[in-house]
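This part of the workshop introduces the protein records we will be handling. A learned vocabulary of local backbone shapes supplies the integers on the structure line. Getting from the letters to the tokens is the skill we practise here. As an example, a complete record with its sequence and its structure tokens follows.
=====
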Amino acid sequence: MIVEQHALWGEEPTEDYPATYTAYSADPVPARANTPRPAVVICGGGSFTNIAPHEQEPVALAFLNRGLQAFVLNYVTSSTGDVSFPHPEADLAKMVATVRVRAKDWQVDPNKVIVVGFSAGGFICASLAAQWKSGSFASTTGERLEYTRPDAAILCYPVLDFRVVRDEQTRDPRIDLRVPKTGGKTGRDLLNDYFAMVMGGEATDELMAEVCPTTHVSRDMPPTFVWGTADDRTCPIAQVYDFAAAMAREGVAHEVHVFDRGGHGLSVANINTRSDNREQQDAVGAWVDLAFDFLVRERIVEA
């Protein structure tokens, strides 16, 4: 395995462009020395404030072992820069284009670049998949429009609609109690502050609709695989149903799996991501095989 680390936007990360990435490439096999591989660009979750390590390298290794080159994107978060929409999404668009531009260097098939996102990273991947053509991502990156288009998307317990998240997380009346050590703010105030940080403005229904992937689903989307759990309290599963219905209306090739249990943050559900949640991980462990089979049927990867 060859591992490389790079700044995304130049020779070195800067305050305005802090994103970096790690490339995981398989060692060349003599019999397939000149055969390009599909690639995955991985966006871990972390509530847009950081990126969870267990949704990075373990994911890269899982796909590398299935014959894909893997790229882990450290997109901008609130701990490194301006996380407001569309800055993380522009990072992903730049990363997808970079993989295509350097396809020969990394032995990648430029027509088979897949984005894989978890939780907040799922929002970023879904946004690019839904808006690669209509959004401003390509102009922001300076890359050709078609270079930023994912050839497929895999969305894992994703954030898809902040309106649904808000409605689910404000059902409990205790949300309006003041929270200690927050300057007298309530839980609702803190939630609105968080949404404003991610969206770059006051958390109105109009702005939520403007930035959320569900409202931008179109027939230009690539084939998309989505999975989540019925008991996920962080990213309510209702979002997935709404997103799937939108894809169905637009004729987007898609596959959706909802597991009855598992909660949130399960990554690839193998020995490298397991802690004290083996029961939950066992419940969803089939998702990697299911996603790979979907990619095979869509002729993105070979069995």
